[in-house]
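Lab meeting minutes (informal)
Scribe: AK
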Amino acid sequence: MAQFDIDAMLERFRNRAEAVRQRPLPPVAGEGRRAFIEQAETDYTDFALVGGAVWSVEEDHLVLRIPLAGG
């Protein structure tokens, strides 16, 4: 079984957040455009939160600590 690299996983989430932020808007208008933008905002938030986590292993559980306040 391959070794699980938590730091690499968190880096992938940071990369995904950046990819969502850089994603161009498709040529849609109206409701489709609004839905695309809302989904992109949700995706960015999810990926950025996990990507910014600090991890530890406690009692055989991976624990991600996600700061909710800036700083």
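Next up, CB showed the second protein from the same session:
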Amino acid sequence: MKVAQNAVVVIDYTLKDNAGEVIDSSEGAGPLAYLHGAGNIVEGLEEALEGKEAGADVQASIEPAKAYGERHEDMKQEVPKELFGGVENIEAGMQFQSETDQGPVLVTVVEVTDEIVTVDGNHPLAGVHLNFDVTIREVREATAEELEHGHVHGEGGHQH
């Protein structure tokens, strides 16, 4: 079976940036299972895996536009530290969910002063060119429940 819309795909992967630094890997965590075409992985990787079969090794270089998007400096914002009531030690790297007019947004703290916390609403990998090394371990038909839920159930997927 080939990787196609609504197929369950199980992969081993290593993700690196353009400097060759490992950003993420399935090594040690077990394979990743996803529902192809459901937006479970970045668009560029889905495109690179389309039509491949189990056993295939795929190298894919993904531009930011087909990954986590470009960085937008206007998504950085300075907010009064008092808005973080109940959080004693705010440090760079911490993440919080912020409610906006467009819905919830995950923000990352990038700087903290005595009175101001600078947060960034960009995805941490926004603007990063992604380089994947992937081995496709399995391709199978999705169950009706997986299609209804929009994600894979069981090993490497979502557990209910």
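CB comment: The first helix runs from residue 43 to 49.
No objections, moving on.
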